[in-house]
From TrEMBL:
Its EC number is 3.6.5.2. PROSITE patterns: RAB, RAS, RHO. GO terms for molecular function: G protein activity; GTP binding; metal ion binding. Its main location: other. Keywords: Acetylation, Cell projection, Cilium biogenesis/degradation, Cytoplasm, Cytoplasmic vesicle, Cytoskeleton, Golgi apparatus, GTP-binding, Hydrolase, Lipoprotein, Magnesium, Membrane, Metal-binding, Nucleotide-binding, Phosphoprotein, Prenylation, Protein transport, Transport. It comes from Astyanax mexicanus. It is an enzyme of class 3 (hydrolase). GO terms for biological process: cell projection organization; protein transport. It catalyses: GTP + H2O = GDP + phosphate + H(+). The lineage of its organism: Eukaryota, Metazoa, Chordata, Craniata, Vertebrata. This is Ras-related protein Rab-34. PANTHER family: RAS-RELATED PROTEIN RAB. Interacts with RILP. The GTP-bound form interacts with REP15. The keyword Lipoprotein applies.
Length: 258
């Protein structure tokens, strides 16, 4: 029988980490949702503690996706560029509000010739991290296309989006505030949470991934509570469909499969 080692002390999240920019946050609450806190205290988090949530990291070539993941997962930084070929992944185990929670971080290739392989791994993501280089405005403009590609494989209503500017160490405060303005606008437009980080110095890297883990955990627990709520005996089961004719909807779905 294999027993997992305890979660590392520096992966324990006892409270909701703060957003980076109030104007571009997924939410601005100070604490986890009360329902989530109560469920964790009462150990009513269902299967969340056994689940592995998939997170994909996309963006132009050489913007710093691999370095971002390596800084967090291995506390390492390589100044030499080695293109990711296809995909790579890292597992990270956390403990959020006392509940174990795992993220599978998928590092994808930004180079056009590898994009086709990488995109086959986009499916089933619970969070999408779109990365751009704070010193390269074109990479920010391209984030819209990366989002579109990632969403072809995912259900937009179930995915948390993050927009991350890297290489903060390379831009002067004046340059930074210029691009930040555009990045915050973009984040608001695509409903993503904005962060600016440096994998070289490590600035904001841990804070960012803690926020990703926490918000993904929170949405998982809320979904689990909703599911168990609708299963309760005696309660009316709410069926989420816009169609007044459920039979027709089902039939349509069946036809799609053939
Ligand atoms: N100064 C500085 N350089 C960085 C930072 N992050 C990445 N780099 C450099 O940028 C280059 C590209 O980084 P990668 O992480 O390999 O880029 P990538 O987005 O994974 O590229 P692909 O795998 O081709 O898509 C490397 O030379 C890194 O050393 C940072 O925060 N600061
Ligand atoms: Mg890479």
């Amino acid at each position: 029988m294999s027993v997992l080692p305890p979660v590392r002390k520096d992966r324990v999240i006892p409270q909701l980490p703060k957003f980076f920019n109030e104007g571009a946050a997924l939410h601005t609450e100070d604490e986890f949702d009360t329902k989530v806190k109560t469920a964790c205290q009462e150990q009513r988090t269902g299967t969340v503690g056994f689940k592995i949530s998939k997170v994909i990291v996309v963006g132009d070539l050489a913007v710093g996706k691999t370095c971002l993941i390596n800084r967090f997962c291995k506390d390492a930084f390589d100044k030499n560029y080695k293109a990711t070929i296809g995909v790579d992944f890292e597992m990270e185990r956390f403990e959020v509000l006392g509940v174990p929670f795992s993220l599978q971080l998928w590092d994808t290739a930004g180079q056009e010739r590898f994009k086709c392989i990488a995109s086959t791994y986009y499916r089933g993501a619970q969070a999408v991290i779109i990365v751009f280089d704070l010193t390269d405005v074109a990479s920010l403009q391209h984030t819209r296309q990366w989002l579109e590609d990632a969403m072809k494989e995912n259900d937009p209503t179930n995915v948390l989006l993050f927009l991350v500017g890297t290489k903060k160490d390379l831009s002067s405060p004046a340059q930074y505030s210029l691009i930040e303005e555009d990045a915050v606008k973009m984040a608001a437009e695509i409903k993503a949470e904005y962060w600016a980080v440096s994998s070289l110095s490590g600035e904001n890297v841990r804070e960012f991934f803690f926020r990703v883990a926490s918000l993904t955990f929170e949405s998982n627990v809320l979904a689990e509570l909703e599911k168990s709520g609708s299963r309760r005996i005696g309660e009316v089961v709410k069926i989420n469909s816009n169609s007044p004719n459920l039979y027709a909807t089902n039939k349509k779905k069946q036809n799609c499969c053939h």
